Amino acid sequence: MNIPMKGIQKQHKEHLRSKNQNLSNATIRGKDKTKTFSLADRYTELIVISSLRERRLVEHELLARGKDHEEWQQKYINSDLEKIRIDQLFRSSFGHTSLSGTSVVSGVAGIGKTTMVQKMVHEWALGTMYTQFQFVFHFTFRNLNSIKGTTSLKEIVLDSYPYLEKILGDIWMRPEYLLLVFDGLDEFQHTIDFTDRATRKVSETSCTGPESRCEVAEIVRCLVQQQVLKGCSVLVTSRPTALNSLEQANINLWAEILGFLADERKDYFRRFFGNDELASNVFKYVEENEILYTMCFNPSYCWIICSTLGPLFTQPEGKRPLPKTITQLFSNYVYNLLKNHQRDVEDQRVELLRIGELAYQGVSKRVIVFNEDHFSQNQLEPSKFISGFMMEILERDDAAKNTVYTFLHLTIQEFLAALAHYLTPRHQNMLELLHWAFKKDDGRFEIFIRFVVGLSTPTSSQQLGEILGPLSHGTTCQVIDWLKANVQAEIKNMDRSAGKRQLLNIFHYLCESQNRALAQMTVGSVERLIFGDSIPQKALRLNPLDCAVLSHVVQLCETMDELNLEKCYIQEEGVKRLAPAIHKFKRWAQLQTQSRKVQISIPSQCCSVISTEAGGIRTNSHLLNIELNHNNIGDSGVKLLSATLKHPDCKTQRLELQDNNLTAACIEHLWSAFSVNQCLTMLYLDGNQFTDECVPNLRNLILSCKNMELIQIWRNPFGPDGQKQLRSLRESRPGLRVFV
Fold it and tell me: Cα-Cα-Cα-Cα dihedral of 112, 114, 119, 124, to 10°?
């Protein structure tokens, strides 16, 4: 490299370092438009995995965990997937070193894709990451949208980095030392066709080199496919919904951001507040609230939660109650913004109604970026008031610069869209709107409806009403009428796969309503809830947030005798959320004279932490079975399980632990459970790792636990002598069955 290029490279690094050294957030307090923070102080490591999995996730960040996010996060914990660092993105998915090619990083909205790119570019500029690259060019698809007609890669680069003009030709000569980053494919308004173009005719608009003029989509395609600047490296980030276009592309590595696990969540709170005691207090509150804690896998939600709760924890006692639902959380968020923007507009209610109508148009049409035409149609003008809810984005429009706007987060857009329907003075039929939105099966209205229902509660409406004036009572009445009718209708449809999903959504709405009387009226007499199925494809996968909502609803059911969650994959965290509801089956006391058993079908891998507080059980005719077969819970899982089985109200009779990779280390925990819980009579340990060395402890377990009637330990690697010693126990007391 000659001396002039070294000097310009230094200038380029300084430019990227300066541009990316701070994070900017809109302030919750509203005194300034934005507040900046050091990237080094605020950046929290994200969990990123290298994966070739099915890349189809629902876009919405709150729902993602309920689809694939929780399942794949758990697979990472089980080491089924490979965790990678952001400095490892340029190697193949099969572990081979590669310094060129295209890497794709996906993740739901707000999960940290853009911040991760900012961190990566900043570290390169500091010389601490990707030192094999001499130049890094960083672009966003959002800005590329503004390019009209044809252009060239040279023009795109020089628009952002004009000081490179004299050496750009030299840079093209060594593409293997070049990294191009394209952030936000899901925001690109044009289609990129990555299918085989070998049979296509070369036209005048084809991209043949970095200086040839063609469409932006064609430039990106040729870079990704290594048809231009062969040997360069490309990084593309995207929400999962836009990944289908990349299916036919030559991708070197697929990666996914899973967000935060427990340790990363704590670290985010600590970095956000900069005060360990305050961070600990806020995090403890969030951790104890199932809905808020579940949201914290997503950094954007962490920011909203910390921004909203921080003032509540630092103000004098007795000011405002802490939020318990997402509607209450966002009501607090908007309340804080409105309180600090009172002098910015003449009528906040009118202005917020206009913003909300704009937001609703975006939700219904799936628009997240709004231009001046959108503003004009809704009688809006840029203002400090609006900047509390939306952020400005500069886009290049040929010779001019224009501004577009996007809400700080999709969920803020959805909340304001819901709020608008409580602010409008015009008569409208909410029953008709809710019926139409609920029937849409693409998920666009799910969170919107949660907010619409949540705003029908006095807690949310009264707080916002202090500033905006009373919210529409007529809307509230229509929402409650709609919810009442649909709970009863969807309960009848739960045997269908689609019906299960719709019923779960209805339960989310019930939970948001915080209307105990309505919930008891609609679900209080339900006798059975079926979300599971013996066929996995017909069972509804539930995330921890779903389980928290289900727990809330089940606790209001006075006559339930069956809760079927078979193959719902709720996992350990989901069971923790369900535990408070398990002992609420009031019907158990009413069935004492009946011969049939009460059935609870729960995914076996989750029962290691379940608390079967069966307070309603009165006789041993209603004993429960726990099936934990084929779940690899291991000895540590049995330790957790034994603590639960010793609960004084636990009436579990039959414990199945087949094919769980158990060893001698778990026998003490099994003995502890059986010696305390006299209801336990049957134990199934087939297909584990018990050997002859375990026989003395197994014999002690069987002999000392007089309540044990059956133990089955087939398919364990016992020798002939070990099997003989165990079979001999059949003679130790009448009725004891030992199968080896």
Answer: 140
Cα–Cα distance, 690 to 702 (Å, whole number):
15
Q: What whole-number distance in Å separates Cα of residue 604 and Cα of residue 637?
A: 11
pLDDT by residue (tens digit) across 272-331?
999 999 999 999 888 877 667 777 877 888 888 888 888 888 876 556 677 878 898 889
Structure tokens at 138: 């960083």
- Please give the backbone phi and psi of residue 451, each rounded to the nearest 5 degrees, phi first: -70, -40
Closest CA to 220 of 254, 196, 242, 191: 191
| CA pair distance 582, 600, nearest whole angstrom | 9
Ramachandran region, residue 361 (left: φ > 0; alpha: ψ -120 to 50; beta: rest)? alpha
- R_g of the chain, CA atoms, integer Å: 30
CA 283 to chain centre: 18
| Element of type H or E holding 107 | none
CB-based contact 104:181 (threshold 8 Å): no
Write the CB contacts of 155 (distance below 8 Å, at least 6 apart in sequence): none
Tokens representing 288? 């104890």
d(CA 322, CA 320): 6
Give me the amino acid identity at 239.
R
CB 438 within 8 A of CB 486: yes
Please tell me whether the overall predicted TM-score, pTM, comes out greater than 0.90 for this model: no
pLDDT tens-digit series, residues 562-605: 677 766 766 656 666 766 665 443 322 222 223 233 333 333 33
725's tokens: 């010693």
Mapped onto helix, strand or coil, the DSSP state of residue 346 is: coil
Task: Return d(Cα 259, Cα 70) in angstroms, integer.
Answer: 10
Alpha-carbon distances of 382 from 120, 210, 386, 645, rounded to whole Å: 33, 38, 6, 61
CA distance 380 to 389: 13
Encoded tokens for 558: 């006075």
Return d(Cα 594, Cα 689) in angstroms, integer: 40
What's the rounded Cα separation, in Å, for the pair 694 and 467? 70
Alpha-carbon span 675 to 182, nearest angstrom: 62
